[in-house]
Amino acid sequence: MIQIRIGTLKTYGIETRLKATMSDPAQIEAAIRDEAARWAEGFDANSLIILAKALRGFDVTAQFGRIKSKVLFVLSRTDKLFPPDIAPGVMQGLKSAGVDADYFLLDSEYGHSASGLDADKWAPRLKQFLESLEQA
Hints:
mainly alpha, two-stranded parallel sheet
């Protein structure tokens, strides 16, 4: 479980976050291992089986037509889990389904964790999006 979480954290961009406060690679690895161990203590391993099945078997694109609200689709430039090269296909699928959708590419080094760690970089775009909802 710990090794799986270490891999996940690295995919999410934890190394970039830790390099902001640590310079020793061994210290960074230890911090990642500690965070993974804390997570593993409280996580049910059976959940990983369910999540893996869901990821393999569920295609959300078939549900796009059910979306009734406006969508702001935000991806990080460095996200390995949801890389920005998926954006054109997702946006085309949303538009084809009649969804009023807008896309924003977040310029961040924090990978999958960027939306939280670099919230200030996309907060103005979110504010603009929310204001557009008020006007509608």
